[in-house]
Amino acid sequence: MKKIIFSFTFIIALSFNSISQEISPYIKVGEVNESIQKVSNDVINALKSNSFTILGSYNPSDNSNLKVIAFTRNDIKNTAIKVRDRGALAAIFKIGLVNSNGKTTISYTNPDYILRAYLQDDYKKYSATLQKFGIDLKTTLSTLGNDFTQFGGTVDAEDLKKYHYKITMPYFTDPEELNEFASFEEGVSVIENNLNAKKGNTKMVYKLIYTSEKVAVFGVGLLNKEDGEAYFLPIIGEAHAAALPYEIILQDKQATILHGKYRIALHWPDLTMGTFMKIMSTPGDIEDTLEALCQ
What's the whole-model pTM score? Predict the structure, then answer.
């Protein structure tokens, strides 16, 4: 009888350990009866008071009912740059604010989700630092709400490092090349000048530059009403506003972006193929717009 009980317990334990951990791209902090501007100020003050650095903010789609606040912290910034394959993209996190009927919903990009996807095999190497960042961020935002439920679809945690939407679809390791410059400094100058000129109806939401490592990340608002955020965001879901802005990453002389079919699917993993087909031109439109910023 003891052997039978032991065997049964072992099977249950083995089954439990093999259960996959499903995680989502966003965490909802809560919903408050405040204006989006008031909540934005409260979020920024909370982050600044807890050693987070505000990189920039904007209204996606030029919609005053949507706002994104991009931020980082020194520990996550210094860890992300150690990962050479576009790891710097993991240094930036976003708060999403969505106002509807006088109520503002606060959410943020889930660090565990983004870091697993962008740091890939290096995630486990730096897991202690990365997990502390997530805990501290939750503590900081707990002054603004107490929900902290995940939303936005789910992906198995272990699958995130090799995530792709469907078979034949691109991976993190399949970026789109925008341009190769004569030098890192030239690349920064060209991209900054074009963004400052709002070329292609774009907006520089933030820039994060690692001078000694020759890496720069630019957060770019896509404000063209014909093919930018105002076109695709209402179709795929404004609740995921914290997915934005889109990023250009410059590493030494090479400017790239994550492929739209990867980047969009990662942040909207519950999209049906039918909905995805409604924005089938969007990945190409984004690439064209961001490529023009590198010319």
Answer: 0.93
3 state DSSP class of 175: coil
Amino acid identity for residue 41 in this structure:
N
- Give the pair of three-digit tokens for residue 251: 């590493």
| Residue 33 tokens, joined | 């009866």
pLDDT tens figures, 44-70: 999 999 999 999 999 999 999 999 999
Report the distance separating Cα 88 and Cα 266, nearest Å.
17
Q: Beta-strand (E) ranges in 15-116?
A: 22-23, 26-32, 53-58, 66-72, 93-100, 103-109
Q: For residue range 95-153, what is the model confidence (pLDDT) as tens digits?
A: 999 999 999 999 999 999 999 999 999 999 999 999 999 999 999 999 999 999 999 99
| Dihedral sign of CA atoms 187, 193, 196, 197 in order | negative
CB of 205 within 8 A of CB of 196? Answer: no
Q: Residue 271 and residue 161: Cα distance in Å, rounded? A: 19
Residue 164 CA to residue 141 CA, distance in Å, equals 31
